[in-house]
Design goal:
Number of helices: 7
Largest sheet: 2 strands, antiparallel
Helix content: 55-70%
Order of helices and strands: HHHHEEHHH
Strand order of the largest sheet: 1-2
Radius of gyration: 17 Å
Number of strands: 2
Shape: globular
Strand content: 5-15%
Distance between the termini: 21 Å
C-alpha cells in the first residue's frame, strides 16, 4: 500500500505542476495513454490491448485527447487501411514537461531520503518488477476496464 501511496503522491504532484505549466486538462490516465502511443504512434486496437480496455473505450479516449490537441489520427504510410494515432506537438510537450517534473521530484526525494537510499530503492524495485515492457492496464486491474 505504501508503494501505491508513493506513486499517488508523485502522480498528483506531477499533474498539479503540469496544470501550472499549461496542461490543466491532463489526467493521470493520459500519461499511460501517451506511453502506450509511443513515439511512432499506434492504432486504437493496439492501444486498447495495451491499456486493457476495448477498442471502443480506447477510441473514446483518443477522441477526447484529440479534442484537447494532444493526439491526432492519420494514415499509416505503410498501410493506408490502418489509422494511426500519434502525439501532437502539444502531447510531446506534455511528456517533456512531465519528465522534467519527475526529475525535480526525484531530486526532492533524494534530498529527503539521501541519494544512495533512493538509488537502492529504485534498484530494489527494478529487481522485483518485470524488466520487459508490460501492459498499462491499470483501469482493468482496478476493475474499471
Amino acid at each position: 500500500m505504501r508503494l501505491l501511496m508513493a506513486f499517488r503522491v508523485l502522480i498528483d504532484e506531477v499533474h498539479a505542476e503540469l496544470a501550472r505549466q499549461g496542461h490543466p486538462d491532463l489526467r493521470p490516465m493520459h500519461g499511460f495513454v501517451f506511453q502506450a502511443i509511443g513515439p511512432h504512434g499506434t492504432t486504437a486496437v493496439e492501444l486498447g490491448r495495451l491499456l486493457g480496455v476495448s477498442k471502443q473505450a480506447a477510441g473514446k479516449t483518443i477522441d477526447g485527447l484529440e479534442r484537447l490537441g494532444y493526439v491526432e489520427r492519420g494514415v499509416d504510410p505503410n498501410d493506408a487501411r490502418r489509422k494511426v494515432v500519434r502525439l501532437t506537438a502539444r502531447g510531446v510537450d506534455s511528456l517533456a514537461k512531465s519528465a522534467a517534473i519527475f526529475e525535480d521530484l526525484r531530486a526532492k526525494w533524494a534530498g529527503a531520503l539521501g541519494a544512495e537510499r533512493l538509488r537502492a530503492l529504485e534498484e530494489d524495485l527494478r529487481t522485483m518488477t518485470p524488466g520487459d515492457s508490460f501492459h498499462f492496464d491499470m483501469p482493468a486491474w482496478f476493475g474499471g476496464g
